[in-house]
Amino acid sequence: MYQVIATDLDGTLLNADHQVDPFTVDTVNRLEAKGLQFVIATGRHYADVAGIREVLGIRSYLITSNGARVHAPDDTVIHARNLEAATVRRIVQPEIVGEHGRVIVSLFADDAWLIDREAPKLLAFHQDSGFTYQVTDLTRHSGEDIAKGLYVGEPEDLAEIAARIEREFGDAVYITYSLPDCLEIMAAGVSKGRALLAVLARLTVDASRCVAFGDNLNDIDLLETAGHPFMMNNANPKLIARLPHVPRIGNNFEAGVAHHLRKLFELDDELAS
């Protein structure tokens, strides 16, 4: 039977306001009390996700920055993989980002979210954790100790950035989308799925006993790794096309993960509205 539950956050476990609702909190707590182990797998920064875990009230493993960091429930780092410093210094330059200045650029260090300008709209994603950014001249950053680069902008601009990075770095980096307007870059070999395998090995649990939930392109490896993957009904159409065999469940804005977990584990829905 299932022993591990791995889930993405935005577009999956979190609601339309990028928060956790009481129904979801009650569900995960009841399942943890039954002995299920949760794994949160997201592109978000560790400090941000630690705050969301606190709101959920569970002792989950945290896979963050799309797999570049893995923390145990006691916050011990069990895996870390950085971008090469020279790569970081290059990917924040106008020749890569675009001279037009339309794209917001961020770097994720161990203890900070560094951003190239004020972007208050992005803080709406971090209401539960209170995580915030530091405005920094990224073109002068040393490039050391960076887990992830993030570009936020129009899909057309992001496609051009992705093409430039692919031409210059090829297989030396891993690039993916967490949302249509969020392009992310990590070191080669980083992915949620590989990070999940590291967690499962630590738990001595086979992937066949793992349930996973996701909604976007950065969840492909996660869903391919877990023995029992599920895709949100609101998933990116490109993910649906890529993994047509993965069952689709409810929407994130209707607590779809929580409702499906209650069906899988035969919990009642007394808190459902």
From TrEMBL:
GO terms for molecular function: hydrolase activity. Its cofactor is Mg(2+). Keywords: Hydrolase, Magnesium, Metal-binding. Pfam families: Hydrolase_3. InterPro entries: Cof (IPR000150), HAD-like_sf (IPR036412), HAD-SF_hydro_IIB (IPR006379), HAD_sf (IPR023214). Belongs to the HAD-like hydrolase superfamily. Cof family. This is Cof-type HAD-IIB family hydrolase. It comes from Paraburkholderia kururiensis. The lineage of its organism: Bacteria, Pseudomonadati, Pseudomonadota, Betaproteobacteria, Burkholderiales.
